[in-house]
Write a structure and sequence with these properties.
single chain, about 300 residues, alpha/beta, eight-stranded parallel β-sheet, two-stranded antiparallel sheet, about 10% strand, globular
C-alpha cells in the first residue's frame, strides 16, 4: 500500500497504551552527541526516545527533549533499570527521573534478567533474582511509571517470571535484539501469545554485521531506491515490532525516518525472513549468569 504511514504508526500494548512504531535508540551514544541527536529526532517527527540508566546519558537525553521544544506529553520515553540496581528499584527510577528531568516515564524496563552484585559485577546477588525485581517494579506508582516491561528475556526466563504466583502484571514490552540475522521467530510468537509487545534493538544489526554485505538486502534496497537501513526498519515494523535505530548522525536520523509511502511486499518480507546468516550484537558472556539459551528460533 503506497500510503503506508510508518512514522505515525503505533502499537497498542496490553495496558491500552500506544507505543510509537519508530523511536531513537541511544545505546553507545556519547553524552556530548546524544543531546543534539535527540533534539534533531524530535524536531524531525520522532515521538519515541529510548535510553537507560546504564547508558550514562539520561541527563543529556532529557536536555535534548527540552531543546526540541516538543511538549513532554507528545513524547514516549523508555528507560531501564540497571542490573546492579535490581534490589533498589525505587532508587533506580528516582535516579532516572532526576537525570531525565521528567516527572514520569512511559515505559520502565528491567534491562537484563541478571541481578548483578554492585560490589563485584562478576557475581550475582546471592539473595535476589529477577522475579523479586519484578515484584518491586509492580509496586511502582503510575504517577512515575506508566507501563513496565522487560528486556533481553528469552522464553525460558519469561516462563519463570510469568509462572511465578507473584507475577500480577504481564510485562507490556520485551525489548530484544531483532534483525534478519537474529530474527527470533519462536520468541516473537511466544510473546504474541502472551500479549507482550516486542521492541527491536540493534534493528540495523551493527557496523560489523554481515547484513551490510548481504546480496539479498542490498539488491532489494537498490531496486526500491531505499537505503538498506530503511528496508530493515520497515521489515521490523511490518513484523509487528517497534524499532529503535541508534544513530547520532543527523543525516541518518532523518533518513531512518523516511519510511512513509512505501512498503515491503509479502515476497520481499519472505526473502528477508529467509536470510540464513546468524549474527548477534549482544551476548551474555559479560554477565554473571547466562540469559540466552538459543530458544528464540
Amino acid at each position: 500500500m503506497a500510503s503506508a504511514k510508518n512514522t505515525s504508526k503505533s502499537f497498542t500494548l496490553n495496558t491500552g497504551a500506544r507505543i510509537p512504531a519508530i523511536g531513537l535508540g541511544t545505546w553507545q551514544s556519547a553524552p556530548d552527541e546524544v543531546r543534539d541527536a535527540v533534539s534533531a529526532a524530535l524536531r524531525k517527527g520522532y515521538r519515541h526516545i529510548d535510553t537507560a540508566l546504564a547508558y550514562g546519558n539520561e541527563k543529556e537525553v532529557g536536555q535534548g527533549i527540552k531543546d526540541s521544544g516538543v511538549p513532554r506529553e507528545e513524547i514516549w520515553i523508555t528507560t531501564k533499570l540497571d542490573n546492579t540496581w535490581h534490589h533498589r528499584v525505587e532508587e533506580g527510577i528516582a535516579s532516572s527521573l532526576r537525570d531525565l528531568g521528567t516527572g514520569d516515564v512511559d515505559l520502565y524496563l528491567m534491562h537484563w534478567p541478571s541481578s548483578t552484585d554492585p560490589s563485584d559485577t562478576k557475581k550475582h546477588l546471592p539473595d535476589w533474582n529477577f522475579v523479586k525485581t519484578w515484584q518491586e517494579l509492580q509496586k511502582l506508582p503510575a504517577t512515575k511509571v506508566k507501563n513496565i516491561g522487560v528486556s533481553n528475556f528469552g522464553i525460558r526466563n519469561l516462563e519463570i517470571l510469568l509462572n511465578d504466583p507473584s507475577c500480577k502484571i504481564i510485562p507490556a514490552v520485551n525489548q530484544i535484539e531483532l534483525h534478519p540475522n537474529n530474527p527470533s521467530p519462536k520468541l516473537l510468537d511466544y510473546c504474541k501469545q502472551k500479549g507482550i509487545h516486542c521492541t527491536a534493538y540493534s534493528c540495523l544489526g551493527s557496523t560489523g554485521s554481515p547484513l551490510y554485505k548481504d546480496p539479498t538486502l542490498l539488491k532489494m534496497a537498490d531496486k526500491k531506491g531505499k537505503t538498506p537501513q530503511q528496508v530493515l526498519l520497515v521489515w521490523g515494523i511490518q513484523r509487528g515490532t517497534s524499532v529503535i535505530p541508534k544513530t547520532v548522525n543527523t543525516g541518518r536520523v532523518e533518513s531512518n525516518f523516511d519510511l512513509d509511502g512505501w512498503e515491503l511486499s509479502s515476497q520481499e518480507m519472505k526473502e528477508l525472513d529467509g536470510l540464513t546468516d546468524r549474527f548477534k550484537v549482544c551476548g551474555d558472556g559479560w554477565l554473571p549468569v547466562k540469559v540466552f539459551f538459543g530458544d528464540d528460533e
